[in-house]
Design goal:
Blueprint: H1 3-32, H2 39-69, H3 75-88, H4 90-109, H5 116-138, H6 143-172, H7 180-216, H8 220-253, H9 258-273
Helix pairs in contact: 1-2, 2-3, 2-4, 2-8, 3-7, 4-5, 5-6, 6-7, 7-8
The structure holds protoporphyrin IX containing FE (HEM).
Length: 282
C-alpha cells in the first residue's frame, strides 16, 4: 500500500468513525428523549466504538491473512494482502489500548466507585498505551520503533498478570458484589490480551516469510510456512472473537446486578398479568 492509498484509507476510516459517532449519538438522543448528551453517553458510545473498530478490522486482518497464505494467488496480490493486513491491524491495537480506561470510567457509572489513586492508574493507562501502539506502528523498522514495540509487549504482559490479581483481590473483599459481571469482563479482557500475544507469535513469524515472498517470490517451502502460520494463529483469533462476544453480552445483560434482577422481575410480573400468561419484555 503506497502513501496515497494509506492516507485515503485513514481518511475513509475517520469519516466512517465520525458518521457512526453521529448516528450513535442520534440514536441515544432518540431513545432517551432528553436531548442532552451526557458525558456518560459519550463514554458509552466510545466503549461501543472500541468494540466495532476492534472486531471489524480484526475480521479484515483474518481475511487478508488467508489471501497471504493462498498459493494460488500471484505474489503481487499476496504481498499487497500482507500490506493491507498490516495497515488494518492498527485498529484492533488502538482499541485494546483504550478499552481498560474507557471501561474503567464506565464501571463508576454502574456503582463501582474508584479511589483517587485508582484513577491515577486508570486514566493515563489508555493514552500511554495508545502512544506506545502508535509509535511502535509508525516508527516500525527503526530502533525507536523496536524498543517501543517491546515496551508495548511488556505492558500487555503486565495487564495479563495484574488484572486477574486485582480482580481476585477486589472480589475477595466484596468490592465486586454489586457488579460481578464486571469481574468477568475484566478477566475476559486479560484473556483476550493473552490470546493476542500468543497469536502474534505466529503472525510475527509470517513477517520474514512475507519479506521473502516480496523479494525472492514464492516456493513450496515458503507457502507451507505461511499456511502453517495462519493455521496456528486461527484458534487464538476465533477465541478472541468469542471473548469479545461474551464481553458484549455481559455488558448488555449485566448478570448478577440489581438492574438485571429488576429486568427479570419485570418479565415475570408482566408475564403473570398478561392475558394467557404470555410473557413480554419491559
Ligand atoms: C473485552 C472487551 C469488551 C467488549 C467487547 C465490551 C462490550 C460492551 C458492550 C457491547 C456493552 C453494552 C453497551 C450498551 O449497553 O450500550 C458494554 C457495557 C459495559 N462495559 Fe464493556 N466491553 C469490554 C470490556 C470492558 C471492560 C474491560 C470493562 C471494565 C473495565 C467494561 C465495562 C463496561 C461497563 C461498566 C458497561 C455498562 C455500561 C452501562 O451500563 O451503561 N467493558 N461493554
Amino acid at each position: 500500500m503506497n502513501n496515497k492509498q494509506r492516507k485515503a484509507f485513514f481518511a475513509f476510516v475517520f469519516t466512517g468513525l465520525l458518521l457512526w459517532f453521529g448516528y450513535a449519538q442520534a440514536l441515544t438522543l432518540s431513545i432517551e428523549s432528553d436531548y442532552v448528551i451526557t458525558s456518560y453517553e459519550v463514554v458509552l458510545v466510545l466503549h461501543e466504538l472500541l468494540l466495532v473498530f476492534w472486531l471489524g478490522p480484526d475480521i479484515g486482518v483474518f481475511i487478508w491473512s488467508n489471501k497471504v497464505a493462498n498459493a494460488e494467488l500471484s505474489d503481487e496480490v499476496r504481498t499487497t494482502a500482507a500490506g493491507m493486513m498490516h495497515t488494518i491491524d492498527l485498529f484492533p491495537r488502538i482499541c485494546i489500548s483504550l478499552m481498560l480506561t474507557v471501561g474503567g470510567i464506565l464501571t463508576e457509572v454502574v456503582g463501582l466507585e474508584h479511589a483517587w489513586w485508582q484513577w491515577i492508574a486508570i486514566l493515563p493507562l489508555g493514552p500511554v498505551w495508545l502512544t506506545l501502539v502508535l509509535i511502535a506502528y509508525f516508527k516500525e523498522g527503526t530502533s525507536v520503533g523496536e524498543t517501543v514495540a517491546k515496551l508495548d509487549k511488556w505492558l500487555r504482559w503486565i495487564v495479563v498478570i495484574s488484572v486477574p490479581i486485582s480482580v481476585t483481590y477486589a472480589t475477595s473483599i466484596g468490592r465486586m458484589d454489586s457488579a460481578p459481571w464486571v469481574s468477568a469482563k475484566l478477566l475476559i479482557f486479560a484473556a483476550i490480551v493473552l490470546l493476542g500475544l500468543l497469536a502474534r507469535r505466529h503472525l510475527d513469524a509470517m513477517q520474514d516469510d512475507i519479506k521473502k515472498l516480496g523479494s525472492t517470490g514464492s516456493s513450496d517451502a515458503l507457502n507451507e510456512k505461511l499456511i502453517g502460520s495462519v493455521k496456528s494463529a486461527r484458534p487464538y483469533i476465533f477465541a478472541i472473537w468469542a471473548g469479545l462476544a461474551i464481553a458484549s453480552w455481559l455488558g448488555i445483560e449485566q448478570p448478577g446486578s440489581a438492574q438485571s434482577e429488576m429486568r427479570s422481575a419485570a418479565v415475570t410480573v408482566t408475564g403473570d398479568l398478561a392475558e394467557g400468561g404470555k410473557q413480554s419484555w419491559k
